[in-house]
């Protein structure tokens, strides 16, 4: 990787942290009286894009999967030990499962697609 690629890759990882924080903070949103976790849809779209972009820099699994790992760790750490000690992620809340599933599953599928293309090429 060139030095410019390393800088861009670093920005991808910072972007994964920022997206995870935004998605966590807006997870308990409401529209009127209805729970509306729109950030789960944001996670389903943005996290696989980060994985696909990271895979352009290196065919190695560690590099391509780094945004997913950083996103997941950020969600877990800040979700359990949130701002002011508040617990944002609750084990019995459907929005928690929706966020984790919408962020991690499409990203893992994208990682498999990208690595599969590299193996066949």
What does the model show?
With 121 residues, this protein is mostly helical. Helix content is 73%, strand content 3%. It has helices at residues 3-25, 38-55, 61-80, 94-120, and strands at residues 30-31, 34-35. Strands 1-2 form a two-stranded antiparallel ribbon. α2 (38-55) packs parallel to α4 (94-120). The mean pLDDT is 90.
Break the fold down into its secondary structure elements and pairings.
Layout (H helix, E strand, L loop, with lengths): L2 H23 L4 E2 L2 E2 L2 H18 L5 H20 L13 H27 L1
Helix pairs in contact: 1-2, 1-3, 2-3, 2-4, 3-4
Total number of helical segments? 4
The count of strands amounts to: 2
Q: Structural class from helices and strands?
A: mainly alpha
Proportion of helical residues: over 70%
């Amino acid at each position: 990787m060139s030095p410019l690629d390393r800088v861009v890759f670093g920005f991808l990882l910072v972007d994964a942290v920022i997206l995870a924080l935004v998605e966590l903070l807006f997870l308990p949103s409401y529209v009127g009286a209805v729970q509306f976790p729109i950030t789960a849809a944001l996670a389903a779209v943005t996290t696989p894009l980060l994985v696909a972009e990271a895979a352009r820099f290196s065919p190695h699994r560690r590099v391509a999967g780094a945004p997913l790992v950083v996103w997941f760790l950020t969600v877990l750490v800040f979700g359990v030990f949130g701002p002011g000690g508040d617990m944002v992620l609750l084990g019995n809340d459907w929005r928690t499962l929706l966020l984790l599933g919408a962020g991690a599953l499409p990203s893992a599928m994208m990682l498999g697609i990208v690595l599969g293309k590299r193996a066949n090429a």
